[in-house]
Amino acid sequence: MDLRHMRHFVAVAEELHFGRAARRLNMAQPPVSQSIRRLEDDLGVVLFNRSRRGVELTEAGQIFLVEARRTLMQAELAGKMARRAVSGSTEVRVSFVGAALNNFLPSLIVSFHEAHPDTRLTLEEMISRNQVDRLLAGDLDIAFVLGHGEYSGSFERLVVERSLFVAAVPAHWDIARQESVTLAELARQPFIRPPEKSMRGIPETLAIFHSVGHVPNVVQEVTQTGVMLGLIGAGLGCSVITATCAMRPPPDVRFLPIADHPPHRRWELAMIWNPDHLNPSSAAFVQVTKDYVAARPQLLDLA
Known about the structure:
The chain is of the alpha/beta class. It contains ten helices and twelve strands. It is globular.
């Protein structure tokens, strides 16, 4: 089966229009139609229903689309891995969520550079969902993601940091003068949360409320922790955030303990990687991280 035919099929399946697919592929329409016919002949199934009303996938076409995308991604990944192996790169490509910078990641980077001074780290901040996609595509070696998400079975996973949640409220609110706050009190305030689409699974900031039967009054969704703290400082709402953020408190935000914090809920940061795609430098980074965490058990028990 020719990968070119598969790429043509995916384009038509996503556009559901032969003309638009041809333009997307920078081809004339007849060769695209011929390519799809050839693919259908090779498979012995009809992939598209064609009518005057348009084009739609058959049941076989819907199933084949899932597998075709996976096959094309795997083919692209194989090429990336081969080219990288030939280049002899000593670069380690690392991504992370912003909260990793509060406590864990800066010290880890120092430890790694001390052990491997000639290895170059390329660092990029992004949301957990995007990190997983980039890791699957072979564009990253290591990802530090929110630990409660659902991730590919091909990844290995190590929880590197764990902490309680705290309430983050505007310093000028009356509630900021309290010694602690309950989840019911927070649920009555304007609430800022990360978007559900930014990670796989329900954000822990919502799950912590659900576990005690409350629903926060969400008025704003933001992805970046720094932006969230800026909005809280401006008085636009409050939030629930990892206690590691309180290590560097902004002057206009007050962090409060949560009096009824569910005992089974913790914020977690996890390192994920595909062991089959590590070069010697990225494998060394994984080992340094394992050793770093093993030597600091307090990372997994931050109150």
